[in-house]
């Protein structure tokens, strides 16, 4: 009877046959939300296309201005060599031309700056949506989200390319011909890890820093719920990484126990460099031959981990000049020691003593022979606070703040092949574009 129903709010009388319909909205797939996200993808795509057209324009304008500068430089040189042959009128004309080029370049810089902020906004929008898609994917059937996710992967790749070209306008020669890091981009959130586990907070991801020919597009990922390093997956490209379709997953416990610890590994020339669990040493797992070997690091102590995670005693890094390992010793009283590894001999060939206390450091990485160390500013902000230049053997306290995705991260490394920083942040794949000072300092 109806009044029995309403009066009892759906409870069942003992012996009665009636039952209540459950409120199902929590488990029904929110189609409306997905349609909305697809429409947003179209809008973002249009905005992005517009920015790509602009970058084309900036590049061609820049080429013309450069040519003008070269022409004027030649004229000035001729005038200097033979000052008497040029009339005052001609000199005035050249001066006006110089002023004009200067004005054009300033105008171009302003436009590029505006475009940069548009790209940052687009990046933010995409990031929010990727997090939203991941939520949908973990809660419902992930196949329903597949098409939309593909759209966003494409958008992300287009945006990456657009940002890279922007970066190149400011830094035409991406090599070590710069004065060090000036700033980092906003965090680029790719997605939650392949284990789809928010408990997998210990891990890392990235690309080979010196790929064998034909493997340039590969990505790798490793993570666990503890600091143990056991599984490592390789993906043929970014798309496969995002679709969580590994080419192969390697197990460092089988057939032999080659397990590691500390999650501060990298892949270089198809070799996985990591901290061996026992005995405490540096190790390399050759992915081609699938064999591991380890070497003790003279003086290295296992007492000084980084701030965010345990067992991070040997941190591997790679830059334009090769392979590095960061650690601390009892003799250094916990201050960070930097070692350059001879890859062929798998041995340290030179070490530098820095003045930064390793446990105060969030993480560290190398760019062009310079060590960069980070620390927490607040729950949303991290900063590069100390650098050590191996060429001048000088340490420097600096402040280059950057935004974190979430408070804790266990992995940060630079990759010289694409000048990006790869961070593993609370289970998410995060990366940053790196901007350099133009002049060699
Ligand atoms: C039924 O639910 C309403 C609203 O939650 C509440 O005010 C009322 O006391 C409930 N009745 C019974 C019998 O539990
Ligand atoms: C630079 O000089 C060359 C040769 O005089 C000329 O052909 C060219 O148009 C000039 N370029 C610009 C951008 O003024
Ligand atoms: C760019 O780098 C190349 C070699 O890597 C060098 O020859 C060239 O002079 C550099 N150009 C500028 C503008 O620095
Ligand atoms: C890895 O193994 C392959 C095949 O045995 C070998 O050619 C290569 O030199 C090894 N790489 C390193 C870094 O030891």
TrEMBL record:
Main location: secreted
GO biological process: signal transduction
UniProt subcellular location: Secreted
One matching Pfam family: OLF
Source superkingdom: Eukaryota
Record domain Olfactomedin-like: where: 175-438
Keywords, ordered alphabetically: Secreted
One cellular component term from this protein's GO annotations in UniProt: extracellular space
PANTHER family, per database record: OLFACTOMEDIN-4, OLFACTOMEDIN-RELATED
The protein's name: Olfactomedin 4
Phylogenetic classification of the source organism: Eukaryota, Metazoa, Chordata, Craniata, Vertebrata
